[in-house]
From TrEMBL:
<comment type="similarity">
    <text>Belongs to the yippee family.</text>
</comment>
<dbReference type="InterPro" id="IPR004910">
    <property type="entry name" value="Yippee/Mis18/Cereblon"/>
</dbReference>
<keyword id="KW-0479">Metal-binding</keyword>
<feature type="domain" description="Yippee">
    <location>
        <begin position="14"/>
        <end position="111"/>
    </location>
</feature>
<dbReference type="InterPro" id="IPR039058">
    <property type="entry name" value="Yippee_fam"/>
</dbReference>
<keyword id="KW-0862">Zinc</keyword>
<dbReference type="InterPro" id="IPR034751">
    <property type="entry name" value="Yippee"/>
</dbReference>
<dbReference type="GO" id="GO:0046872">
    <property type="term" value="F:metal ion binding"/>
</dbReference>
<dbReference type="Pfam" id="PF03226">
    <property type="entry name" value="Yippee-Mis18"/>
</dbReference>
<protein>
    <recommendedName>
        <fullName>Protein yippee-like</fullName>
    </recommendedName>
</protein>
Length: 115
């Protein structure tokens, strides 16, 4: 049996993993906001994710206006997780640039215990 390796492991006590393959994705402390919407419901705005592939950039009309974004997917199992904001056309939305939307439905909470 071949085991799937996770390219990057997070050492924080509270992390979120891919709900499909449990690859580490983000630290609880890296969540900027929980008040965002993804394609499939509630989402996190985060400043850093690991073990993701970034797709093709495209202009997309979102609830807050036009943005240039690229979908992000899990590197291990290719599950679509959300997107990366590359450019915001409106000045009030510039704070999102180079940050990520990660859909809550696509991640699982995990705790790492030090014994």
């Amino acid at each position: 049996m071949v085991s799937k390796r996770h390219p990057t492991y997070l050492s924080d006590n509270r992390i979120y993993t891919c709900s499909t393959c449990h690859s580490h994705l983000l630290s609880h402390d890296g969540i900027i906001s929980r008040a965002f919407q993804g394609r499939h419901g509630p989402a996190f705005l985060v400043d850093r994710v690991v073990n993701v592939s970034i797709g093709v950039k495209e202009e997309r009309m979102l609830m807050t206006g036009m943005h240039t974004v690229a979908d992000i997917s899990c590197k291990v199992c290719a599950t679509k997780l959300g997107w990366k904001y590359l450019h915001a056309f409106e000045e009030a939305q510039k704070y999102k640039e180079n940050k990520y939307i990660v859909e809550k439905a696509k991640v699982s909470k995990e705790s790492i215990w030090d014994f």
